[in-house]
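Problem 12. The chain below contains 520 residues. Write out its predicted structure in token notation.
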Amino acid sequence: MLDIGPGLYFAISGLVVAVLSYCRKYSLNHSRPPLPPGPTPLPVLGNVLSLDSARPWLTFNAWRSTYGDIIYAHLLSKPVLIVNSEEVAKDLFDRRSSIYSDRPQSIVYGAFASDFNMGFMPYGNRWRLHRRIFHQSFHQAATPAHHDVQLRSAHKMLFNLLQDPSNYPSHFQMFTLTFMLSIIYDCEAKAKDDHVVHAITRYGELIVDGFAPAAMMLMEIFPFLLQLPSWFPGATFKRTSLKCIQAGHDVKEIPFQYVKERMSANDMGPCLVADALNRSSQEDDVNTTAVKEAASVAFTGILPLTQTTATLLVFFLAMVLNPEVQAKAQAEIDLVVGKDRLPNFDDRPALPYVEAILRETLRWHPVIPMGVPHATTTSDVYNGYFIPKALIYPNNEPFRAMTHDATKYPSPDEFKPERFFQNDGSLNSDTMRLGFGWGRRICVGRHVVDASLWIAIANFLAFFSVHKALDEHGMEIPVVPKFTTGFTVHPKTFPCRILQRFPDVSLQTLTRSTNLGPLC
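Solution.
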């Protein structure tokens, strides 16, 4: 008998295993439905070199024209599914939510103090606990309880714009911070340098920088960048990570301790944190930590703060570029509300054109262009395609894809609120939910965001009008829209004129029925 020796034996065994593995993979590939169409990947790199790292949604749109509404690609070793159709998104994220409700995990989350963010958590018990805490204060039936503070915050925004109109982005942010701080912590912001506000804005700024698509891709490809000592030349990501971890600690602890101190002094009004702690034992460390984390997440990128502020900036740009739309909305407000008070939530049903402006603002330039990626928990078959375990990107890109589908929205690049009206003059059923996500991962705060956007837009249009800035010769300066890049996008600041519509009417008189109250 031939003695093949141990070396040759292992070599032959390895060859047999490799052949069997290949045959099994070949058999699976030919016995299951095909993968969705997509660009041909390179070895190791996949399709990453074809991607616009700063604005990946532009690449996804270019692929859409070739491959359709559902695209399969590879980013390095990660399989990725891009969803470019509202109908496909509804089918997968709503109707098959048990499969498509997970989140991909990243080394960046922990390094940038976002592993406690409900929006990035994997689907499971911890996520359910955070979601339940949010739901108590943000579900649709609870929204009217926040109307007073949202109206008060809108009035404060008008006062700030009247005093310092050129700083309008900051005033929009403070509007959102004011009502959110009240809802979450029963606290209103005095100014941007308030210690609570500073902790929140500092953390938010660091998160936006850290989660820029290009930065995340680099850290995923080269994870050692997060292991370098902070003193090492070029260790920018590591230094930013350390700042973000400290900011993440502050954003959880500083506002939470403010509530605890007021609760101890029996000087606490209703709010998310106090109500959640009162519903359970404050000695329950798991629940206390969850309350602390859930509260702080309300001020990060995928929940009300950034989305509301950025959407108001889009509205502002739209009004400057479309003065006829602004004038039509103001005529409606003057007819329904009059000129001796400002709009309130009771006026909303009678102001359909203002409602249409809100919807069109959400459609025209979504501030979260790609949506937060989902992940599948198992493989699936959809429309004859095999869907493996993969990252799923709902592409809400502002120029095409879902919100700029010319079949559904003719002349999609134009700002036309009229597209939301039916032939009989009533509003249609398209409420533009795209910006709030899908399925079990839909934004918990969407009802609060919707109400806050409406009251801010209605009050601004009632009291102010915004126009292009004038040069030294009195000629209008053209506005060329420019947008930021990153996880969220919004118009960059541009010069404009914010004018009081009725100079002889005092803002104090219009808002005298509203008690602005003390600030924290």
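Discussion. The beta strands are 70-75, 78-83, 374-375, 380-382, 385-387, 391-394, 464-468, 496-500. Students who got a different answer should revisit the alignment rule from Section 12.3.
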